[in-house]
From TrEMBL:
Domain of life: Bacteria
Alphabetized UniProt keyword annotations: ATP-binding, Hydrolase, Metalloprotease, Nucleotide-binding, Protease
Recorded family membership: Belongs to the AAA ATPase family. Highly divergent.
Domain AAA+ ATPase: 47-184
GO biological process, one term: proteolysis
Protein name: Uncharacterized AAA domain-containing protein ycf46
First-to-last residue of the parent protein present: 220 to 487 of 528
GO molecular function: ATP binding; ATP hydrolysis activity; metallopeptidase activity
Length: 268
């Protein structure tokens, strides 16, 4: 990762197979892959503009941004919208313009805008008293989204739809909006399996044990499931045995998931 202020350059290792669930998004990204090639442009296909991923923290939105860059074999730039503000008058607008130019210079590329609501809703500056800076930054960004000619695919991620400017949600800005929900039981099982596999422990678990863990972790996000597996590894190490189902069950039971404060989120 190379970092310079509001822009970060990534070489992600994650692939789409590292994501449990998010099947609609994964198949959409797979279908769009071909339309992002030079052949497709020569044919006259419209280059995809981008997606907006909305959902709770820890559900795999950032992971998806990294995985798509890897799957499409394109450079990935992460733009921290919150950090483009400040400096002398006009500096914020100049910052966003130069960030967009960098993405274009690297094109074909992926521009990942993390927590886009923080940069476009006026939260980072002094709201109505910011002299219109936020709305000029928003204007610059939206015009670019609509008119950009270079193949830069935008992956914007956000936690709070209510804080997003309505203009961004309007048709024609992004190709698709995906709502990333909490994983359901089968998806939790897949996510637990992915994180066990990454630690070379998957073969030690039967499918009925994995099923039991998925049932026990109702309401957990992907990040919380990963954390439970990590904690369980510490537990097993401390107790001097190989990781087993009970270690993970214990760490699941010791976790109070973010969603427990929002009961209406849980689907199964
Ligand atoms: P935030 O809004 O806080 O950025 P996010 O939705 O982008 O959250 P990630 O940063 O992608 O969430 O998740 C953190 C980590 O949790 C990931 O790097 C991954 O290891 C794990 N994780 C989250 N969701 C999934 C998933 N669906 N499948 C596999 N692992 C996941």
């Amino acid at each position: 990762i190379r970092k310079s202020g509001h822009l970060e350059y990534f070489h992600p290792k994650a692939t789409l197979d590292d994501i449990g669930g998010l099947d609609n998004l994964k198949s959409w990204l797979n279908r769009r892959r071909q339309s992002f090639t030079q052949d497709a442009r020569d044919f006259g296909l419209e280059t995809p503009r981008g997606v907006l991923l909305l959902g709770l923290p820890g559900t795999g939105k950032s992971l998806a941004a990294k995985a798509v860059a890897n799957a499409w074999q394109l450079p990935l730039l992460r733009l921290d919208m919150g950090k483009i503000y400040g400096g002398i008058v006009g500096q914020s607008e100049a910052n966003i313009r130069s960030a967009l130019q960098t993405a274009e210079a690297l094109a074909p590329s992926i521009l990942w805008i993390d927590e886009i609501e923080k940069g476009l809703s006026g939260m980072q500056s002094s709201g109505a008293t910011d002299g219109g800076t936020t709305s000029r930054v928003l204007g610059t960004f939206l015009t670019w989204m609509q008119e950009k000619e270079k193949p830069v695919f935008v992956v914007a991620t956000a936690n709070h739809i209510a804080q997003l400017p309505p203009e961004l949600l309007r048709k024609g800005r992004v190709d698709e909006i995906f709502f990333v929900d909490l994983p359901v039981q089968q998806e939790r099982q897949d996510i637990i399996s992915i994180h066990l596999k990454r630690r070379n422990r998957l073969d030690d678990f039967s499918s009925s044990e994995l099923n039991e863990l998925a049932v026990a972790s109702k309401g957990f996000t992907g990040a919380e499931l990963e954390e439970a597996v990590k904690e369980a590894m510490f537990l097993a190490f401390d107790e001097g045995h190989q990781l087993n189902k009970n270690d993970i069950l214990k760490s699941i039971q010791a976790t109070s998931p973010l969603s427990s404060t929002m009961a209406e989120m849980i689907q199964d």
